[in-house]
């Protein structure tokens, strides 16, 4: 399919103004789309815009963007707490709300009512069944997985996940759309965790088991994987970047849906989530953070 398939997609609604939704909104706006970023929490929307402004002004300081292009990009993003109104005029919706099946099913049913019949509904879910999510729509052939990686503006990969009901047209449009916004779409089948997280999360979980069993300390585990395996970031630091609550949610899905104990979340991961030590976004996970991207301790 030519990129003509995506020319109809000009107005995008992104639901969930957390780490992923904010990055996805930036990617679409950078590609010239008009974006409405929706969240139930007004303070989440304010924080998202503040974080985008600060990330983009750093790009200006580094000489990678001009002040005018940043202003134009930000001018293409509006925010709303009213999903129905935002979805009303959108050609394409992508949800990046919490990794909880009940929340996503409810949201997809709401989107189904609010969007025009041609509009596509994509989910950025890390692990949940697209087939199950599509069943919440009265028009399930328009539902698809479009799985960005963190941080969305930097990582080239998008897993394109077809549910059982997803139409060829939906898959073709989303594949062309991913290319049009500068990403590399990779088709994967609808299985728990798809390809990326099915491989990544057991590695992160094993690193947490190794830490809690005293095999090595935090820095040593991350250094082993960086220096020995060529990973750009160790698994514990990566878990902090992803969010420890998100890691736990994904492992719960893998454990439940495969019915295999090899995916059982490490007890230390559960404890840290219970303590509210969710990683970089909360300033504390396996490492401590201040306002920057890198651990301070
Ligand atoms: N964190 C990652 O590295 C990563 C990578 C790829 C995919 N994902 C997936 O992306 C999704 C979001 O992850 P995140 O890390 O951005 O989460 P997050 O916790 O940072 O943000 C989620 C946002 O969704 C909002 N929200 C919750 N319910 C809502 C609703 N009904 N309507 C509107 N907004 C709602 C919350 O207020 C919050 O701002 C999850 O499905 C996650 O699995 C995460």
CATH class of the largest domain: Alpha Beta
- Percentage of residues assigned to helices: 40-55%
Q: What is the name of the CATH topology of the largest domain?
A: Rossmann fold
In CATH, what is the homologous superfamily of the largest domain?
NAD(P)-binding Rossmann-like Domain
Q: Which structural class best describes the helix and strand composition?
A: alpha/beta
Instruction: Round the mean pLDDT to the nearest integer and report it.
Output: 95
Radius of gyration based on Cα positions = 19 Å
State the low-pLDDT regions, or none.
none
Shape: globular
Largest sheet, if any?
Answer: 8 strands, mixed
**Alpha-carbon distance between the two ends:** 49 Å
Instruction: Please write the string of helix (H) and strand (E) elements.
Output: EHEHHEHEHEHEEHEHHHHH
Strands side by side in the biggest sheet: 3-2-1-4-5-6-7-8
- Share in β-strands: 5-15%
**Count of domains:** 2
What's the number of helices? 12
Bound ligand species? nicotinamide-adenine-dinucleotide
CATH architecture of the largest domain: 3-Layer(aba) Sandwich
The overall strand count is 8
Brief descriptors of the model:
Rossmann fold; 2 domains; N-(1-d-carboxylethyl)-l-norvaline Dehydrogenase, domain 2; 297 residues; globular; alpha/beta; binds nicotinamide-adenine-dinucleotide; single chain; 8 strands; 8-stranded mixed β-sheet
Structure description:
With about 300 residues, the protein is of the alpha/beta class. The protein has two domains: about 5-190, NAD(P)-binding Rossmann-like Domain (Rossmann fold, 3-Layer(aba) Sandwich), CATH 3.40.50.720; about 195-280, Orthogonal Bundle (N-(1-d-carboxylethyl)-l-norvaline Dehydrogenase, domain 2), CATH 1.10.1040. About 45% of the residues lie in helices and about 15% in strands. The chain contains twelve helices and eight strands. The chain has helices at about 20-30, 40-60, 65-75, 85-90, 100-115, 130-135, 170-180, 195-210, 220-230, 235-240, 245-260, 265-275; strands spanning about 10-15, 35-40, 75-80, 90-95, 120-125, 145-150, 155-160, 185-190. It has an eight-stranded mixed sheet with strand order 3-2-1-4-5-6-7-8, sandwiched between helices. A hairpin with an 8-residue loop joins strand 6 and strand 7 (about 155-160). It is globular. About 45% of the residues are buried. The protein binds nicotinamide-adenine-dinucleotide.
């Amino acid at each position: 399919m030519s990129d003509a398939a995506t020319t109809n997609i000009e107005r995008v609604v992104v639901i969930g103004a957390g780490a992923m939704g904010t990055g996805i909104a930036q990617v679409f706006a950078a590609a010239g789309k008009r974006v409405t970023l929706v969240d139930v929490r007004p303070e989440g929307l304010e924080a998202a815009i503040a974080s985008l402004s600060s990330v983009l002004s750093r790009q200006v300081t580094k000489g990678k963007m001009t002040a005018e292009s940043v202003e134009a990009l930000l001018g293409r993003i509006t925010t709303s707490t009213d999903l129905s109104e935002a979805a009303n005029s959108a050609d394409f919706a992508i949800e990046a709300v919490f990794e909880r099946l009940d929340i996503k099913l409810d949201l997809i049913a709401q989107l189904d009512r609010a969007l025009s019949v041609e509009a596509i509904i994509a989910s950025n879910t890390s692990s949940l069944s697209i087939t199950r999510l599509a069943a919440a729509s009265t028009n399930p052939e328009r539902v698809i997985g479009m799985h960005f990686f963190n941080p969305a503006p930097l990582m080239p990969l998008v897993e394109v996940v077809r549910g059982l009901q997803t139409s060829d047209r939906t898959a073709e449009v989303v594949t062309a759309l991913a290319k049009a916004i500068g990403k590399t779409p990779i088709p994967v089948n609808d299985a728990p965790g798809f390809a990326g997280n099915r491989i990544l999360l057991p590695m992160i979980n094993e690193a947490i088991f190794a830490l809690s069993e005293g095999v090595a300390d935090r820095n040593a585990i991350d250094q082993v994987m960086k220096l020995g395996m060529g990973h750009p970031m160790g698994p514990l630091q990566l878990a902090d970047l992803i969010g420890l609550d998100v890691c736990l949610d994904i492992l719960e899905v893998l454990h439940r849906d495969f019915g295999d104990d090899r995916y059982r979340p490490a007890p230390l991961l559960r404890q840290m989530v219970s303590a509210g030590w969710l990683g970089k976004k909360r300033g504390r996970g396996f490492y401590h953070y201040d306002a920057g991207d890198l651990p301070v301790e």
